[in-house]
Amino acid sequence: MKIPSEMPRLKGYRFAREIVAYAVWAYHRFALSTADVEDLLAERGVIVSRETVRKWVNRFGCHFATCIKRDRPGASDKWHLDEVVIAIRGKKHWLWRAVDGNGDVLDILVQPRRNAKAARRFLKRLIGRFGAPRVIVSDKLRSYVKPIRELAPGADHRAHKGLNNRIEGSHRPTRKREKLMGRFKSPRQAQRFLDAHDQINTLFRPRRYQLSANSYRHARSDAHDLWRHYALEMTA
Fold it and tell me: Residue 162 has what pLDDT?
C-alpha cells in the first residue's frame, strides 16, 4: 500500500503514520498474525516487535472502523440477523451479526446469552443507528419474535433458515481469525477486534464475483484512497 510519505507524524509515535496505517491494514485485510505483520515490515526495513503491532491494531483498528461506518452508504431496508457461538475462556458466548440486503455487515455484538433480552439489545442498537427496516430475515430462534414486534412493528419478519444464507458466509472470516488467534481472550477483545475486522473487510472485499475486472480495480482503488484519508485523520 502506497501512502504518501509527507503525511504528518503521529505525536508520540516513533514510526511514520503511513507505517502504522499499513500494519493495521495488512493485519485486518489478510489472515495474518501480528508476527506475520512484523515480518512484512522487517522485509521493508521497518524493525518493530509483534507487541508493537498488536498495540497499533488495538489502538487504531477502531479508528478506521469508525471512519468506515461514518462514510458508508445508507444500508438497505432488508436485514439479515444471525447469531453464532464463540468460545471465550471455555465459556459459550454468542456473536450477534446483522448484514443488509447487499451483504455488507451492519453491526456485531458479543453477548453471553442467546435469549429475548439479548435480541432486544442488539435490535435496539441497530434501529437506533439505521432506523427500522422494511424486512428482517432471521433463523427460527423464537427470541427474535417479541423484540421485532415491539421495536419494528412495521417490519416483515421472515423466520426461515433457508432464507438466511446471505449472512452465513459472513461468519467464515470470523472462524478463520478465531482459529488463527487461538480463540478470543475476552468478550471485550472479541468485540473490539471483530467490530474493526468486519468493517475493514466490508471496505476491502467487494463482492468480486458481481463485478467486472475493471469495476473491481476501481473499487479497490477507491478503498485505498479512503484508507489514505482515514490515515490522515488518525490521532495519538
Answer: 67
Dihedral angle sign, alpha carbons of residues 52, 232, 4, 26: positive
Separation between Cα atoms, residue 187 and residue 13, nearest integer Å: 29
Residues 6+ apart with CB under 8 A from 211: 219
Residues 84 and 108: beta-carbon distance below 8 Å: no
C-alpha 158/C-alpha 103 separation (Å) is 17
Q: How far apart are CA 145 and CA 151, in angstroms?
A: 10
Average pLDDT over all residues of the chain: 89
Report pLDDT for 164. Answer: 65
The angle at the Cα of 180, spanning 178 to 185, to the nearest 5 degrees, equals 50
Q: Cell 467486472 maps to which residue?
A: 212
Q: List the grid coordinates of 54.
A: 498488536
**Residues pairing with 78 in the sheet:** 135
Please work out, in degrees rounded to the nearest 5, the angle formed at the alpha carbon of residue 16 by the alpha carbons of 11 and 20. Answer: 95
Q: How confident is the model at residue 160 (pLDDT cuts 50, 70, 90)?
A: confident
C-beta atoms surrounding 15 within 10 Å: 17
For the segment 62-96, what is each residue's pLDDT rounded down to a tens digit? 999 999 999 988 888 999 999 999 989 889 999 99
The residues, any chain, with a CB within 8 Å of residue 53's CB and separated by 6 or more, are 23, 27, 34, 37, 38, 41
pTM: 0.85
Largest CA distance in the chain: 58
Cα 77 to Cα 17: distance, rounded to the nearest angstrom? 38
DSSP three-state, residue 233 = coil
Measured CA to CA, the distance from residue 155 to residue 200 in angstroms comes to: 29
- Indicate whether 201 pLDDT > 70: yes
